Amino acid sequence: MMKGTASNHGQGVQSGLITPSFGMKGNGSASVLRGPVPARPVPQPHPKDEDSLVQMAEHIPAGMRTPMCAHCNMVIRGPFLVAMGKSWHKEEFNCAHCRTSLADIGFVEEKGSVYCEHCYEEFFAPTCSRCQAKILGEVINALKQTWHVYCFMCAACQQPIRNNTFHLEDGEPYCEQDFYGLFGTGCHGCEFPIEAGDKFLEALGYNWHDTCFVC
Q: Is this model's pTM higher than 0.70 or not?
């Protein structure tokens, strides 16, 4: 049995302890494609994505103000877009890889550049270990794999294990309640579980915390 805590602070695996963590983006690098890019459907956000990374640019009509374009550093004298706290000429707000216009479709920011959903999925988005779909939102890193929030579930109750402690039994994660209900040993004195590392003793046919076996 191994025990871990799902939290949004820290990540990695230690001996005997598994510490899943939350992230927002995957790692990767894009390679340049040669030749024309064929038409393709815009990917739809996965229904299990939480805190989706996909954003939409805001359209601002002419006459409101004349900001500087974040791409060309020229004054914009007409309608423009606002995205990521910056202003853009509509014709210059494009995917950094395939150059598709992002003026009217969702985009994802990655390392200061913007990408259409297709390119982000292809080059950066991690794959969920359970459903094998790309993750365009909050990511859980656990058991050396990546998961949608609602795909990292207790093997018994099938409820998501989010910021809760979980235990590993036969390679499957269990929430704390189900683990102790199925595999745990309870203290006859306080009726709470005897956890790994607790001092306990066996007496009168029962198990006890050492501090619970008193006169």
A: no
Over the range 125-145, which residues count as b (16 or more CB within 10 Å of their CB) and which as e?
bbebbeeebbbbbbbbbbbee
CATH number of the domain at 58-123, out of 2.10.110.10, 3.40.390.10, 3.10.450.50, 3.40.50.1000? 2.10.110.10
Q: Which two tokens stand for residue 97?
A: 């890889």
Q: Find the length of the chain.
A: 215
What is the domain class of 2-25+127-182 according to CATH? mainly beta
What is the reported pLDDT for 57?
94
**For the segment 41-62, what is each residue's pLDDT rounded down to a tens digit?**
444 445 556 678 899 999 999 8
